[in-house]
């Protein structure tokens, strides 16, 4: 009996030990396992945190490169002229040719008894042209001088900073915006801020061929180019697909503001916007960007120019610009030809060619009619310059001949390519543009022939011949302005 009880106790103890071991192993396994929902949440949180960290670092680098560029060009300007050690009159003399004229309006506004009196003197100016009273705000793009002079008057900086330094530092400060925009645009196109670092670094290393701000401070291009770079960056973001409605609306407003500021600060804005409109027209015709977005960008350009027209006291030269005539012609033919993008490959190519000819002819007729009605001849010397530059005969016009003789309006020197190759920019850049151009041709062919529409969504996504709209726009933008830079050296700043 005792032996039997002992065996039962021993068996119960073994069973208890076995149960405990099994339960411990189960607990260890449960501790080692993480619920699937918890793992997903941690992964999402980790990815979100990494995105915040990466974006913060990239944004900080963009601002840092911009500030570095501003300090760099300011230092170059100081070392070249000893600007802080020369007299006030010598500083003003350093602004040569039209640079001194633009600065004189800023100085006039600063020294005026009041802001109202300064504006009145600009609107009824009898000093610029002999025996003639003109409206400077209507004749020239000097709103930047007006705004900067007002800021200098109302901000508490007059005790610490002379007016000429406030002016020059403002222009140098805009280089921060310029490089920041280049950085972000490269980041948007590639998906990584490392490409932004490369873009900003190459801009600084190739300063001789990218900017002349340190020795021509008041030139209109030094005020307008930073905002054009910002506009291109915003257009890049605008063309990216799958954005929320509020993001699309806010981007549209920003594109309009940057386009307007660019237009109001430079008299040659119409030609730059014309090249941009031509790029958008070509991409729209080849189904490489959304047609609705192209129409919206057309409207932004028109609205910006019309607002500049109002601010410049209804300057008729703006209404006679080629870009307005081209946009009107492009939108009119687009509205009338609704079946332009249907049919076989041969039919579509024929329609596109006829549409191009129709738009160009209508542009010429509209522009000719507007100029005849408004009696415009103020920009005729530009077209005479283009005619002489293209080799279609010499010109006797003084202004056009002056442009032809000016080195900045000559062909791009060959040593420019040597300098760009020495900084390791030319060959990688040319290779990438060449590769993307081939992809663009294939994509355009697929779009015209209808092959892209026959693919399913998965097949189209997996297809090697695909090009995002924002990349397609920047590619055409680069090619068009690159060709202009080769023919006219002063336009090389737009090919960046």
Question: How do the helices and strands line up, and which of them pair or pack?
Answer:
Blueprint: H1 2-32, H2 36-81, H3 88-93, H4 98-111, H5 115-123, H6 136-139, H7 143-154, H8 163-190, H9 193-205, H10 207-210, H11 220-239, H12 245-264, H13 269-285, H14 291-311, H15 316-319, H16 322-336, H17 345-374, H18 380-389, H19 398-405, H20 415-422, H21 426-449, H22 451-454, H23 457-462, H24 469-487
Helix pairs in contact: 2-8, 2-9, 4-5, 4-7, 7-8, 8-9, 8-11, 11-12, 11-24, 12-14, 13-14, 13-16, 13-24, 16-17, 18-19, 21-24
Question: Can you offer a commentary on this structure?
Answer:
- By secondary structure, this protein is mainly alpha-helical.
- Helices cover 75% and strands 0% of the residues.
- It has helices spanning 2-32, 36-81, 88-93, 98-111, 115-123, 136-139, 143-154, 163-190, 193-205, 207-210, 220-239, 245-264, 269-285, 291-311, 316-319, 322-336, 345-374, 380-389, 398-405, 415-422, 426-449, 451-454, 457-462, 469-487.
- Helix 8 (163-190) runs parallel beside helix 11.
- The longest helix is centred in the first third of the chain and has 46 residues, at 36-81.
- The N and C termini lie far apart (102 Å).
- Residues 1-10, 28-34 and 456-464 have low confidence and may be disordered.
Concise synopsis of the structure shown:
With 496 residues, this protein is an all-alpha fold. The protein contains 24 helices and no strands.
Which features does this protein show?
75% helix, 24 helices, 496 residues, mainly alpha, single chain
